[in-house]
Specification:
There is one protein chain. This protein has 229 residues and is of the alpha+beta class. It contains seven helices and nine strands; from the N terminus they run ββαβαβαββαββαβαα. Strands 3, 4, 5, 6, 7, 8 and 9 form a seven-stranded mixed β-sheet that branches. It has a two-stranded antiparallel ribbon with strand order 1-2. The longest helix is centred in the middle third of the chain and has 22 residues, at 76-97. The chain starts with 5 loop residues before the first strand and ends with a helix.
């Protein structure tokens, strides 16, 4: 039986987390929290996800200018992995140059894909409306690539989640875009916020759609933490 001893909210979604006894990182959390951990992302959603499992870390957004061409990749999983790796490398180089080397750096990149086309963050309301019109009533896939770096050890993995978006009228799309929520999110929607009402169902990790596949991240952190014992 899982005892609920803490309730957290992420963008309106209630997460019941047993932060006392039922937590994947619990056996090694003291080891991990004795390290200097850096999240190489400015995403508030990734930050909140990691906070939910009791991890102590600093936020150092990567300054890497994303210049990779997704059209040169056979699969989008490889594209997000390379982008995440470059983000981590930029942060590592910057910290090392300042004499502030990190013990663990976590980096990630997320894209929305449908019919071979990548949907990034819309530049304005017009583009957000166009994106949502294309995604309306269709199934798209969210890919996230994650890099965990500790010294010379580099762990990498990707996660994919299928998202079933409900058919939307132009009125609904324009009203949603007017809220401002779509403008800083890949695909033009946020599943953890108002955009969650536009999603019929998903196949895969919910947190992956938010930008960080929590279970897979924890699984690899456990592996990394055991090597530090």
């Amino acid at each position: 039986m899982i005892k609920v001893c803490n309730i957290r909210y992420i963008g309106g979604w209630m997460l019941y987390l047993d932060l006392c006894k039922f937590k994947m990182l619990e056996p090694i959390i003291d080891i991990l929290n004795s390290q200097r951990i850096i999240l190489a992302s400015g995403s508030p959603r990734r930050e909140e996800i990691l906070k939910c499992v009791g991890l102590k870390f600093e936020v150092c957004p990567s300054l890497y200018e994303e210049s990779l061409d997704p059209n040169t990749y056979k699969c989008h999983a490889d594209f997000v992995l390379d982008t995440a790796r470059n983000k981590v490398q930029e942060v590592a180089d910057r910290l090392n140059a300042d004499g502030k080397e990190a013990d663990i750096i976590i980096g990630a990149d997320t894209v929305v894909s449908m019919d071979g086309k990548i949907y990034g963050k819309p530049k304005d309301e017009r583009r957000a409306i166009q994106m949502l019109k294309e995604l309306s009533g269709r199934v798209h896939t969210v890919f996230t690539g994650v890099i965990l770096r500790s010294g010379t050890c580099l762990m990498k993995f990707s996660e994919s989640t299928n998202v079933f978006m409900t058919p939307m009228s132009e009125e609904i799309i324009k009203a949603y875009v007017k809220t401002g929520e779509p403008l800083d999110k890949a695909g033009g929607y946020g599943i953890q916020g108002l955009g969650g009402s536009l999603i019929e169902k998903i196949e895969g990790d919910y947190f992956n759609v938010m930008g960080l596949p929590l279970h897979n991240v924890c699984k690899h952190l456990v592996e990394m933490g055991k090597k530090m014992k």
